[in-house]
Amino acid sequence: SRPLLAADAHPQDYPTVQAVEHMAGLLREESDGRLDIRIYSGGQLGSERDTLEITTFGGLDLNRVNLAPMNAIEPLTLIPSLPFLFRSQAHLHATLDGEVGDAILASLEPHGLIGLCFYDSGERSFYITSGPIRMPSDMSGMKIRVQNSDLYVAMIRALGADATPMSLGEVYQSLVQGVIDGAENNWPSYHSGRHFEAAPYYSLTRHVMAPEILVMSRSRWNKLSDADREHVVDAALRSVPFMRDLWNARVEKARETLLASGIEVNEVDDLSAFQALMEPVWDRFVNTPEQKRLVERTVQIGEELEPGL
Ligand code: GTR
Asked: Using CA positions, which residue lies closest to atom 8 of ligand 1?
């Protein structure tokens, strides 16, 4: 059968692409070469929002995206995207590896997608062309690029800035041309997309830890035998610990490289000022009983794991 076609916005050496490559190897092994994956990396096939739509219609078989572009499709995907929800990477993992993660993956099927697994994406912080951010008022009136998600737009507005949604591929140019004053992302993406060249002030707000997700089109899934479905799920799950190791190493490497490159990094002393402004944002986006239950469960997992944080 023809290989599963996969899309990723990141270049070939990025951990998300490497993880799906790894999954491809496992899949070939498990299926005696019947199943394989061909990855179109570097955003060749379009933005995450566009490739997701194509995947929904069955024009693509696999897609690795951030949760952000899924927010408009399924409300449960908003949960791990909520600002200041996770206390640590351990909290994120415990949540995604358990009942909450399972519920989110399962919620995608009615939308034409099969949720296979989550991958790490670290902590997102703001980077700005003109100077550091130490308190929300420093962002007042700034134009900040966000992913295509209403939650992110609301978050930026609550901080007193202007949100400009656009796809990842447009960010570098927009920073250089001054169309935007800044953006937000994790260390590896800040580095990989060369955004640091135009926006050298990185302020460690660590406001979002939304993970990546790997989805499959339901129409291709429906054509697979039960045995092949099992191979796909199994290979995806086995790629997760591989990706987690790769990710942590990549964060370290990006951080070291960036610090050595002379960018200005600052801690933000009073994160509670940022957190306080997020309360109405939570209230606006968490409203169904199922969302509320899963958010409560997530908070509880955090309290059990990291008491007092
Ligand atoms: C990255 C993520 C991408 C994309 C990107 C963005 O961290 O890996 O999937 O969401 O952020 O900001 O568009």
From this structure: 66
Give the distance (Å) from ligand 1 centre to CA of residue 64: 10
Q: Looking at ligand 1, which residue's alpha carbon is closest to its atom 11?
A: 185
Kindly report the protein residue whose alpha carbon is nearest to atom 9 of ligand 1.
66
What's the pLDDT tens digit per position in 134-184? 999 999 999 999 999 999 999 999 999 999 999 999 999 999 999 999 999
Give residue 139's pLDDT: 98
Strand order in the sheet with 62-66: 37-40, 4-8, 62-66, 212-217, 113-119
Q: Is the CB of 186 under 6 A from ligand 1?
A: yes
Confidence bin at 1 (pLDDT 50/70/90): confident
Model confidence pLDDT, tens digit, residues 73-107: 999 999 999 999 999 999 999 999 999 999 999 99
Please give the DSSP secondary-structure letter assigned to residue 131: -
Measured from the Cα of 68, ligand 1's closest atom is 10
92 φ, ψ (degrees, to nearest 5): -60, -50
Average pLDDT taken over every residue of the chain: 97
Rounded distance, CA 12 to CA 127, Å? 24
Residue 233 token pair:
């799920």
Give 181 Cα–ligand 1 centroid separation in angstroms: 18
| Separation of CA 143 and ligand 1 centre (Å) | 18
pLDDT of amino acid 164 = 98
What is the phi/psi pair of residue 151, to 5°?
-60, -45
Expressed in angstroms and rounded, the spacing between residue 66 Cα and the centre of ligand 1 is: 6
Number of Cβ atoms within 10 Å of the Cβ of 46: 17
Residue at token pair 């566009």: 50
Answer yes or no: is the C-beta of 243 below 6 A from any ligand 1 atom.
Answer: no
Distances (CA, A) of 14 to 11, 121, 199, 220: 6, 11, 21, 26
Query: What whole-number distance in Å separates Cα of residue 86 and Cα of residue 89?
Result: 8
- Residue 185 Cβ contacting ligand 1 at under 6 Å: yes
